[in-house]
Design a protein that fits this description.
About 35% of the residues lie in helices and about 15% in strands. It has helices spanning about 20-25, 30-45, 105-120, 135-145, 160-170, 185-190, 200-214, and strands at about 5-10, 15-20, 125, 150-155, 175-180, 195. Strands 2-1-3-6-4-5 form a 6-stranded mixed β-sheet.
Length: about 210
């Protein structure tokens, strides 16, 4: 038995249901795979640009601060020693990559599990047309549909109506966007609700069918 998602009109009221494809929204929820993929996605988002200078790279300190003996102070050869303020850093960060390797099969399994979790809890919606590019209209839509919290809106870039949806929802702090062909598992999991435009869900379903048949 396939899961269903409510189809919402531009006003936010329901106008029917959409049969969600099992290959995208069905099956068991694999929590370990989702954890591994999300960890990799968050690691890839890290810049890894932190960098420090060693004592040989810090400017200055070319002369001995004072003579070796007779001053009563400890001997020093450079004011850029790591034990001096403004000196070099010992074993400091010097840029690194945080990326983790995750194969394509695991990414697909994690995304399917995340979508299945949302679908089973009735948190997947289908937006059938939105012709008013105003933030007020988008806020009223979410209020009428009783959609609260963080929301992920999935768009089809080739759909003419995607521009209208983007303009209407993009100024809402609780809304994030994704394209149907580039949905990240993390984006789905961190959202409370996922709204697909009808075009995006149709294209996602058809691309999955073509991939399975090839």
């Amino acid at each position: 038995m396939s899961l269903k998602a409510k189809v919402l009109k531009a006003s936010g009221s329901s106008s029917g249901s959409y049969d969600l494809p099992d290959d995208l929204f069905g099956g068991d929820i694999n929590v370990p795979v989702m954890h591994q993929v999300v960890t990799a996605q968050l690691a890839e988002a890290r810049s890894g640009t932190a960098s420090t200078k060693t004592r040989s790279e810090v400017r200055g300190g070319g002369t001995k601060p004072w003579r070796q003996k007779g001053t009563g102070r400890a001997r020093h050869g450079s004011i850029r020693s790591p034990i001096w303020v403004g000196g070099g850093v010992t074993f400091g960060p010097n840029g690194r990559k945080y990326t983790k390797r995750v194969n394509k099969k695991m990414r697909k399994s994690a995304l399917r599990s995340a979508l299945a979790d949302k679908a089973e809890n009735g948190r997947v919606w289908v937006l059938d047309g939105f012709d008013e590019p105003r933030t007020k209209a988008a806020a009223e839509f979410l209020q009428t549909a009783d959609i609260t919290g963080r929301t992920l809106v999935v768009l089809d870039p080739d759909d003419e109506g995607a521009v209208t949806v983007d303009r209407a929802f993009r100024n809402l702090d609780s809304v994030a966007f994704a394209l149907y062909g580039a949905i990240a598992t993390y984006d789905v999991l961190v959202a409370d609700d996922v709204i697909f435009t009808r075009s995006a869900l149709d294209r996602l379903s058809s691309s999955k069918t073509e991939e399975a048949s090839s």
